[in-house]
Amino acid sequence: MCYNVVMYKLDDEFLAQLGLGAMPEEQKQAFLQHIYSELEIRVGEKLTDGMSDEQLDEFGQFVDKNETAVRAWFGKNLPNYKEDPEFKTLLDKLGPNVAEIDALSEFGATKWLQLNRPDYPKVVAETLETLKKEIVANKSQILQG
User: 98, exposed or middle or buried, with CB in 10 Å at 0-12, 13-18, 19+?
Assistant: First the structure.
């Protein structure tokens, strides 16, 4: 799942900013996916640190796409989610073929984090900065493959 860590664009421009613009095209996508995965893992670890078991279980319902639990959470916390401009934007981004539970899980996870971990954007930004420093420090090795 997402923790919606890509509030930042991970693309060719991102790689160029890190001095990796010369990376062979066939390696760029795989490396960007690796960065995304690593960022997601690290953010997840930081966000879950200090959460209660109840909070972990509740958030886990979004990760697991437990439709009954997700719909119950929306009924209690965001009953008018379909009118939310952010939800509409997400649906546009995900496209017409997205399963409703996928959209609900992603949107619910984001809203849950906003309610329960308001420091979430800061955690993502700090974690990304740390990761960027590690990448720059290892730039020559990365470019060598």
Answer: middle
